[in-house]
Amino acid sequence: MNDAMGKGLIVAGLAIAAVGLAITAGLPLGRLPGDFVFRRGPVAFYFPLTTAVLLSVLLTVLLALLRR
Asked: What pLDDT is attached to residue 1?
């Protein structure tokens, strides 16, 4: 049980590091077409729809590859 949890934490850490490197390299996560920002005066509502779908697909593929 601890071995599986350790591997899961390592994979999660590597995934977070990969996203951080991608953003640092200039990938516009959070500013993709389909990410909505609604502004009314001093209030802003941000809804990153495209970014969420993209990250979901990438994580699904990554986890499917790791389960094999």
From this structure: 60
Phi, psi of 59 (to 5 degrees): -70, -35
> Residue 42: enclosing H or E segment and its boundaries?
none
Instruction: Count helices and strands (H / E) in the chain.
Output: 2, 2
pTM, two decimals, is 0.60
Cα three-residue angle 13-27-12, rounded to 5 degrees: 10
Averaged pLDDT for residues 32-42 = 92
User: Cβ(18)–Cβ(40) under 8 Å?
Assistant: no
Cα distance between residue 46 and residue 32, in whole Å: 12
